[in-house]
Amino acid sequence: MYRSHNCGELNASNINMEVTLAGWVQKSRDKGFMNWVDLRDRYGITQLIFDESRTDKTVFELAKTLGREFVIQVKGTVIEREAKNKNIPTGEIEILVTELTILNAALTPPFTIEDETDGGEDIRMKYRYLDIRRNPVKNSLLFRHKVAMEVRKYLSDLDFCEVETPYLIKSTPEGARDFVVPSRMNEGQFYALPQSPQTFKQLLMVGGMDKYFQIVKCFRDEDLRADRQPEFTQIDCEMAFVEQEDILNVFEGLTRHLLKEIKGIEVEKFPRITYDYAMKTYGNDKPDIRFGMEFGELNEFAQHKDFPVFNAAELVVGIAVPGAGNYTRKEIDGLIDWVKRPQVGASGMVYAKCNDDGTYKSSVDKFYDQEDLGQWAKITGAKPGDMIFVLSGPANKTRTQLSALRMELATRLGLRNPEVFAPLWVVDFPLLELDEESGRYHAMHHPFTSPKPEDMALLETEPGKVRANAYDMVLNGNEIGGGSIRIHDKATQQLMFKYLGFTEEEAKAQFGFLMDAFQFGAPPHGGLAFGLDRLVAILGGQETIRDFIAFPKNNSGRDVMIDAPAKIDDAQLKELHIKIDAI
Ligand code: ASP
Questions:
Q1: 336 and 348 Cβ atoms separated by less than 8 Å
Q2: All domains of the chain, ordered by start, with CATH?
Q3: Handedness of CA 443, 445, 450, 456 (dihedral sign)
Q4: Which residues touch 368 (CB under 8 Å, ≥6 apart)?
Q5: Burial class (CB within 10 angstroms; exposed 0-12, middle 13-18, buried 19+) of 398
Q6: 203: DSSP letter
């Protein structure tokens, strides 16, 4: 038996007990005649004491050779500590060691295994297994496990069945590039790793598994943006014989359950807003509604004077920033520079201070009088002491820019409190999205999404206006889940592929299996998928998902610990029928 107890459980009630512990040496304090060692495992830290007058000489001497992170086993007696540490559960006791075994010596770790480590990101990634010994990472993994368990519990109780779907599949176009795997047995042919189990979960519905879920890895070979992982985990779900309302209710229930069990927070019914409303009000389809600063459209009260910039704009839109009326000229200039950075791309910004006495002072006083500015305040909801910032230009672009400013200011003003949770649904997404470069329409969600029946007629005439039965769950400014009601008949699916620019042959070659299945009694169905990594990070109050993934990739998609991706040798290439031209 390696251990009778773990390093986090002994306390005053165990005094005089003979115990065996095993773990890692966190640190030792050698006072010559007395040597204290902190022994650590996943559960905590227990202090060991080696005392020249009470400990066997060989054990005492051996203890002096222990280095940080040595793996040891000790036997000893639980005794009361003289200097108690109230901060840890084991702080009242220590172990007077009688036997010591070094199970494995260790090199000095390249960074300290402490909550606040001296190791930078890169070195911690390279030695991730050491990083996992640190509380912040370890606790994040335990937290993730807890969330996953609650998901499984909640869904299983509702009769959802977790079904595994294959990882070696055929390409499904969901907007990203596939990772592909060459087939040794089928020369010149490739599997693709799933971007999501979308088609399989739909086939499970045809198979009669009317409530499916899976906590599943998905793979997308996208250009990496900050905090994106090429492989990530979804809570993937699908239900048959449901309408949008059913799906929203079930998964709102799941999220409410998680907030309650994990955070102890009860939330009311989630607000629902349409995509159009979200874009108009927040400039964003995943609005953070923990704070206001809703957009006020000012065209009517900004284009009746001779200010050419506003008069030329498609949209003039502003936000009221609470308590920002006292910003200095320097701070305002700083913000103007901020919105002019290429990442945001505004060409300038107008501001109007709302003075405490109810008057206004703006950067465009030459053009607008107090009455005009009073209208701006009314429309943006500005109060005395606030500042109104106004952007103008093409509608969509300007909304995106103002959204960026809104989020930035909220962050600066401390309005994005990670312990406040404000979930909502965004519904009625457009079915199609125009790709500016190719001039072609793409499915905004994916090609299996059902158009709203009442908008079907618009498909021929104004495809951009067709709304889908598609929805996103948004939490604190992040899309944490998204899905749709699916097309479940062959004719509509065929039509959809046609609108998306597939020839009949292409559609058949890629999705013939799905359309065939639709002919054998496909029930109406729909579902959604949550991004587990992001969900866990938000629930854990963190910005980055990396700490919640045991072995994440870095920003270039590399695993720097195992050094992947890597070359493979010629023999392997040959077997896979792959020729790489010499460079
Ligand atoms: N497969 C979709 C996705 O990965 C989710 C869904 O429609 O259920 O975004």
A1: yes
A2: 12-104 (2.40.50.140), 138-272+422-570 (3.30.930.10), 292-412 (3.30.1360.30)
A3: negative
A4: 302, 305, 307, 362, 376
A5: buried
A6: H
**Are residues 52 and 33 in contact, defined by beta-carbon separation less than 8 angstroms?**
yes
d(CA 419, ligand 1 centre) in Å: 28
H helices, E strands: number in the chain: 17, 22
What are the beta bridge partners of residue 268? none
- Ligand 1 pocket: which of 254, 448, 473, 528 to mutate (most atoms <8 Å of CB)? 528
For the chain (length 583 residues), average pLDDT per consecutive 10?
Answer: 97 98 97 97 98 97 97 98 95 98 98 96 96 97 98 98 97 78 95 96 98 97 85 98 98 98 96 98 98 98 97 98 95 97 97 97 97 98 98 98 98 95 98 89 94 92 95 97 97 93 92 96 98 97 92 94 95 92 63
Q: Report the alpha-carbon distance of residue 203 to residue 212 in Å, rounded.
A: 11
Rounded to a whole number, what is the distance in angstroms from the first to the last CA of the chain?
57
For residue 62, report the phi and psi dihedrals to the nearest 5 degrees. -60, -35
Among residues 254, 217, 224, which one has the least CA distance to residue 549? 217
| Closest ligand 1 atom to 449 CA | 7
Q: Return the ligand 1 atom nearest residue 470 CA.
A: 7
Amino acid present at 328 = T
With a Cβ cut-off of 6 Å, ligand 1 is lined by 196, 198, 482-484, 527-529
Instruction: Classify residue 551 by its DSSP letter.
Output: S
Give the pLDDT score at 580: 82
For ligand 1, what atom is nearest to the CA of residue 195? 4
Structure tokens at 148: 């996953």
Task: Locate 218 and state its tokens.
Answer: 């998905």
Note the maximum CA span of the chain: 94
CA of 482 relative to ligand 1 center, distance in Å: 6
Q: Mutation test of ligand 1: which of 203, 233, 234 has the most ligand atoms closer than 8 Å to its C-beta?
A: 234
| Contact (CB, 8 A) for 14 and 93 | yes
Please tell me the distance between residue 531's alpha carbon and the centre of ligand 1 in angstroms.
Answer: 10
